[in-house]
Specification:
The complex is a heterodimer. Chain A is mainly alpha-helical. Helix content of chain A is 67%, strand content 6%. In chain A, the strands form four sheets. In chain A, strands 1-2 form a two-stranded antiparallel ribbon. A two-stranded antiparallel ribbon of chain A has the order 3-6. Chain A has a two-stranded antiparallel sheet with strand order 4-5. The longest helix of chain A is centred in the first third of the chain and has 40 residues, at 3-42. In chain B, strand 1 and strand 2 form a beta hairpin. The longest helix of chain B has 33 residues, at 192-224. Chain B starts with a helix and ends in a 25-residue tail after the last helix. By secondary structure, chain B is mainly α. Chain B has a two-stranded antiparallel sheet. The chains are: A mainly alpha, B mainly alpha. At the A-B interface, helix 2, helix 3, strand 2 and helix 15 of A face helix 2, helix 3, helix 4, helix 5 and helix 11 of B. Chain B: It holds the Pfam family Cyt_bd_oxida_II.
């Protein structure tokens, strides 16, 4: 393998790994904030106990998300320095904004929330977790704005002299239709993840308590958490589907090759079918693809809203891009940076096809479970002792994680061979594109990339085991039987008054 | 002043924030290996006392680094690209260190077992030591200049980063942060640990004065080429002398202020001696400068607005955090360990 392949593997490993933790943080911090709000508003101790329980799980998860996020920012420069030179003028801006506007807020207020239970007035302390929740979501917006620009460069011109992309309109970058669709999609997926997480753990506990005869506690503490989780799943599941549909239409317009590859569509068709099962020979050659089960006209419908619309296949797009890139370079007197005749202008078919289906399948499966579970618990105060219900709840936790991972694999692998995808029509700017192969660092040897990749992968493996054991251990511990109100309102003034030091409500 | 210069200054400010704030986090982290005394239980309590002095703030402090990184990417893409790909291995080590440090802070108390805490302590010590050393090495290389080719790519290789001047630079940040951390600790705790940290600072400040003094004069004579950078050299020297005196007198607040001033002066010296280069090359024709490395005027204008509006806010709420947690901690403040164990999963039903 050369440095390019290794750098791509490293990016894939570190990004998918990072995004195991991110959606849970994004979705769970608002849910914990909602629980704490319920406590502050109603004074019902149940919500304080739930806040503390899910808050601990949030913190275990938050730490590793932060830790792996640092790698994300650094590796653009380390492994992808030529990409960074090309895009820095545009791409760097949302990253810097994220740090200034969001990351500072979430890190600072998280510290206040963790350590401030007995120091801050109840409402100020509550505001801290909301600041964290809002900032994590704002973080996601800036990162997605940067990523969406790679999918669909806007607000930018190409500087022929320097060979770089240059920003001309920050508003266009931040209101890129691609990010306006990707943001609700990613956030909804994050809420789906957190909703499934809360509902799954609480459902398992509810069943366990009912079976051990403690129906009272199951109804009092866990049922509200199950319902909160399920409603979150249902609403966010609908959000994922609606925003995903919008994204599909944008993709048809902005990245037709990704669309065609997602369907394994080789030849251009009117009224293209949605393939449910296809097999190929894994040579990434269209000739090997056979479609076994299809929904007629459905791909055309997803892409345009019209069942009979014409969808360009991979073969036509290959010709189209070849012709278009060549003529653009000739027309602008740009020295050819690659041989269009020798470049494949569409992504790996098998990966794009299957990651698309796995994303949809895992996401839809999770939302469907929520509907069934809500039906089962529809009566007021209903709890269940069905073992399968608890087990299914635990098993379901994994599905949105998998859906997110496949979603990113799809959107990033599907953009190939480009790292900055061109706009082959009037929807964006002209001339701003970069092949992934041209973005890799020139001075970093394959050995160095391999070395760092092995280092990160080993460390990430160890941390994954530790994270999983911690999460599991704290989930199995369950919600505390009682939880003392730690707020300064409910406690005598601090230690100075009588000269003795009172232990902190929380310490590492 | 034109915008690339403004951003050069802003990035220096971000690094100042990072080194002043995270500097004492690193110091406290490293001192975990040195300061705790007594029997096992006592040492564990003391370690927790130390960790909790930075507990509420270390995460916010670290964001200054991420902002400096993001700002460099946005304002000086060429600098970001050449620096990060060129200093590959040191940055890789720093990343590993920062990762284990973050999770160790948050996960340490979650499991109540000596072995688990032992790993967390090792991670905290390693994760503080490595960046404390390597940031100095990296900055010394920027002061000294590196081998860039005509495309501004770093071609010097890893070993070229380990010159005596650069290694001494590593010792400078290491010793400054150790002293800075000890002073911070003495300022934030009471009881035996306060005394011990104060004594440590009084001794280490002398070492810091010598090491940093030699390095600063070396940097000034050999690499700066500017008369005015004698000013930060002298300010740093005066501040470090003051640190020595104040730590002897146990004037903790004064010592901390002086230590922070010394770090600010060091950043001024480093950035001042580079200017107008952001990455000086051995062949000056190949140097990356504030002009040839910067983004376009439009991008810098946008980012200036963002920075001008948000940076004061950041200072405000981070300052408030320090106010909320202003009280000195004592060993009595540290609650019993609340971690669970992996030994036996207790079922309560």
């Amino acid at each position: 393998m050369d440095a390019l392949d290794l750098a791509r593997w490293q990016f894939g490993i570190t990004t998918v790994y990072h995004f195991v933790f991110v959606p849970l943080t994004i979705g769970l911090s608002p849910l914990v904030a909602i629980m704490q709000t319920a406590w502050v508003r109603t004074g019902n101790e149940r919500w304080l106990r739930l806040t503390k329980f899910f808050g601990k799980l949030l913190l275990i998860n938050f730490a590793i998300g932060v830790a792996t996020g640092i790698v994300q920012e650094f590796q653009f420069g380390m492994n992808w320095s030529e990409y960074s030179r090309f895009v820095g003028d545009v791409f760097g801006a949302p990253l810097a904004m994220e740090a200034l506007a969001a990351f500072f807020v979430e890190s600072t207020f998280l510290g206040l929330w963790i350590f401030g239970w007995d120091k801050l007035p109840k409402k100020i302390h509550l505001a801290c977790i909301w600041a964290v929740a809002i900032a994590t979501n704002l973080s996601a917006f800036f990162i997605l704005a940067a990523n969406s620009w790679m999918q669909h460069p806007v607000g930018t011109t190409y500087n022929f002299e320097t060979g770089r992309a240059e920003m001309t309109d920050i508003v266009a970058v931040l209101t890129n239709p691609t990010v306006l669709a990707a943001f609700p999609h990613t956030i909804a997926a994050a809420f789906l993840t957190a909703g499934t997480f809360v509902a799954g753990i609480a459902a398992w506990w509810m069943v366990r308590l009912v079976r051990s005869g403690d129906e009272e506690r199951a109804r009092d503490v866990y049922r509200p958490a199950v319902v909160l989780g399920l409603v979150t799943m249902l609403v966010s599941g609908a959000g994922v589907a609606a925003s995903g549909d919008w994204q599909a239409k944008l993709m048809f317009d902005q990245q037709p090759a990704k669309m065609a590859a997602a369907e394994g569509l080789c030849e251009t068709q009117d009224g293209a079918a949605f393939s449910i099962l296809a097999v190929g020979d894994l040579t990434n050659d269209c000739a090997g693809v056979r479609h076994l089960i299809e929904l007629p006209g459905f791909t055309s419908f997803l892409a345009t809203g019209d069942f009979d619309a014409r969808i360009r296949g991979v073969d036509e797009l290959q010709e189209y891009y070849t012709e278009w890139v060549t003529s653009w370079e000739e027309a602008n007197g740009v020295e050819a940076t690659f041989d269009p005749q020798d470049t494949r202008f569409y992504p790996n078919l098998a990966i794009t096809y299957w990651s698309f289906r796995l994303m949809i399948g895992f996401g839809a499966g999770s939302a469907a479970l929520a509907l069934a579970a809500l039906w089962l618990l529809r009566r007021k105060g209903a709890v269940t002792d069905k073992v399968w219900f608890g087990r299914l709840g635990i098993a379901a936790i994994a599905t949105p994680f998998l859906a997110s991972a496949f979603g990113w694999i799809f959107t990033e692998m599907g953009r190939q061979p480009w790292v900055v995808a061109p706009n082959p029509n009037t929807s964006g700017v002209d001339g701003v594109w970069l092949l992934t192969a041209r973005g890799v660092s020139e001075v970093v040897s394959p050995g160095m990339v391999l070395f760092s990749m092995i280092g990160f992968t080993l460390l990430y493996g160890v941390l994954m085991v530790a994270w999983f054991r911690l999460m599991k251990r704290y989930a199995v511990q369950g919600v505390a039987d009682t939880e003392h109100d730690p707020s300064p309102e409910a406690n005598p003034p601090a230690d100075d008054a009588d000269g003795t030091a009172r232990p902190l409500s929380f310490a590492y | 002043m034109d915008l690339p210069v403004v951003w050069f200054l802003l990035i220096a400010v971000l690094w100042t924030g990072y080194l002043v704030l995270e500097g004492f986090d690193f110091g406290v982290g490293m001192l975990l290996a040195i300061l705790p005394r007594g029997d096992k239980a006592r040492r564990e309590k003391e370690r927790r006392l130390m960790i909790n002095t930075v507990g509420p703030v270390w995460d916010g402090n670290e964001v200054w680094l991420l902002t400096a990184g993001g700002a460099t990417f946005a304002a000086f893409p060429e600098w970001y690209a050449t620096l990060f790909s060129g200093f590959y291995l040191p940055l890789f080590l720093i990343l590993i260190a920062l990762i284990v440090r973050v999770v160790a802070f948050e996960w340490r108390g979650k499991i109540d077992s000596p072995a688990w805490r032992g790993w967390a302590d090792r991670a905290l010590i390693f994760g503080s030591f490595v960046p404390a050393l390597l940031w100095g090495v990296a900055f010394a290389n920027l002061v000294r200049g590196v081998e860039l080719d005509a495309d501004h790519q770093y071609v010097g290789g890893f070993l070229a980063l380990l010159s005596p001047f650069a290694l001494l630079g590593g010792l400078v940040t290491l010793s400054i942060f150790l002293t800075h951390g000890a002073i911070f600790l003495a300022m934030k705790v009471d009881g035996e640990m306060r005394e011990r940290a104060g004594t440590f600072a009084a001794r280490s400040s002398v070492v810091t004065l010598v090491v940093a003094g030699v390095w600063a004069v070396w940097a000034q004579l050999a690499y700066s080429g500017k008369g005015w950078t004698w000013a930060p050299v002298l300010v740093a020297a005066a501040a470090l002398v003051l640190v020595v005196a104040a730590t002897r007198l146990r004037r903790e607040g004064l010592a901390f202020t002086a230590s922070a001033v010394a770090i600010v002066a060091a950043v001024v010296l480093i950035f001042g001696s580079m200017f107008p280069d952001v990455m000086p090359a051995f062949d000056p024709a190949n140097s990356l400068t504030v002009d040839n490395a910067s983004s376009t005027d439009y991008t810098l204008t946008v980012m200036t607005w963002v920075a001008v509006i948000l940076t004061p806010l950041v200072l405000l709420y981070q300052g408030w955090t320090y106010w909320v947690f202003r009280k000195r901690l004592t060993i009595e403040h540290i609650p019993e360990a609340t971690g669970l164990t992996f030994d036996r999963v207790v079922s309560r039903s």
